[in-house]
Amino acid sequence: MMNRHDFLKTMALSGVATTMNPFGLTSVMTQKGYSAETGLPFDLVAVMGGEPVDMYKKAIAELGGIKTFVKPGNKVTLKPNMAWDRTPEGAANTNPDLMGAIVRDCLEAGAKEVVVFDHTCDDWEKAYKTSGIADAVTAAGGRVVPADLEKYYREVKLPRAKNLKTAKIHEAILDCDVWFNIPILKNHGGANMTIAMKNLMGIVWDRRAFHDNDLQQCIADICTLEKPAALHIIDAYRAMKENGPRGRSLADVVNPKGLFMSTDPVAADTAAVKFFGQIREMPLEIVTHLANGQDLKIGTMDIDSLKIKRIKM
């Protein structure tokens, strides 16, 4: 088992002229034990230094494996970032290898089907294809479905929300037994960061309503959906440090090789923003949907109070 000194060793980031303390998390490593809130071994798992599939396998094993979340016969939905007609190297979309591994894992756990979608900003067929996710999902036995027409969405009420009181949600979320939120870590011009919480804009038909009604509050509001993601898996293998969410060139991308996993979207995003803050300045205070989410009691920013497992590969 690695000691704290080894864990906190600085690592050079590709494309960054500095080094970073892995994960940006300063609390000591916790002993193995069960969280009173979730019944899981840890509230948050953070992995550094591996390839996407290897990091995912390490992290999900610490939470008891995918069978903790997926039961035989379940209909499973996966919601990655898949909105942009960009190749994986551009870090605009979730890593396709990671997506393929999660699909296979769910099917091996006995899932009846695994469906993958995103309400894209670019043409959906091009985005699905160019991202590499469509091919990876299909090869693994899953199925991608479109999200470009209003007929795929049904209106739901959000009684706990502050501004966004209703939203039309994609049927793949409403009709599944369990779903997973799988964003990539990147900068965003409007929200400052787009990670787990912001990724839920892609399950909604009217994205413009967020921008017209206080974007940061609406990001928190949509996370009050009464059918929450079973798990948030943040792909930080590559990260877009600026010009997000689409990016302009490969100069916008660094390769920190990280992954975060939690049932708490506020905690997951808080940890990821701390991590990102060592790539470029990004104070938690300006990513205001985090505090908004905490105020709505969908999660906590106080990650030092959580049971955290850190793994350096």
Radius of gyration: 18 Å
Main sheet properties: 11 strands, mixed
CATH superfamily: LarA, N-terminal domain
Helix content: 25-40%
Shape summary: globular
Q: Could you explain how this protein is built, in words?
A:
The chain has helices spanning 4-7, 52-62, 96-108, 124-130, 133-139, 171-174, 196-199, 208-212, 215-222, 265-276, 289-295, and strands spanning 11-12, 19-20, 44-48, 75-80, 113-116, 143-144, 153-157, 166-170, 178-182, 184-188, 192-194, 231-240, 253-254, 258-262, 308-312. The protein contains 11 helices and 15 strands. β4, α3 (96-108) and β5 form a beta-alpha-beta unit. It is globular. It starts with a helix and ends with a strand. With 313 residues, it is an alpha/beta fold. α3 (96-108) packs parallel to α5 (133-139) and α9 (215-222) crosses α11 (289-295). It is 26% helix and 21% strand. The strands form 3 sheets. Strands 3, 4, 5, 6, 9, 10, 11, 12, 13, 14 and 15 form an 11-stranded mixed β-sheet that branches. It has a single domain, classed as LarA, N-terminal domain (Rossmann fold, 3-Layer(aba) Sandwich).
List the defining traits of the structure above.
313 residues, alpha/beta, Rossmann fold, eleven-stranded mixed beta sheet, two-stranded antiparallel ribbon, disordered N terminus
Strand and helix layout:
Elements (H helix, E strand, L loop, with lengths): L3 H4 L3 E2 L6 E2 L23 E5 L3 H11 L12 E6 L15 H13 L4 E4 L7 H7 L2 H7 L3 E2 L8 E5 L8 E5 H4 L3 E5 L1 E5 L3 E3 L1 H4 L8 H5 L2 H8 L8 E10 L12 E2 L3 E5 L2 H12 L12 H7 L12 E5 L1
Parallel strand pairs: 3-15, 4-5, 4-9, 5-6, 9-12, 10-12
Antiparallel strand pairs: 1-2, 3-14, 7-8, 10-11, 12-13, 12-14
Helix pairs in contact: 3-5, 9-11
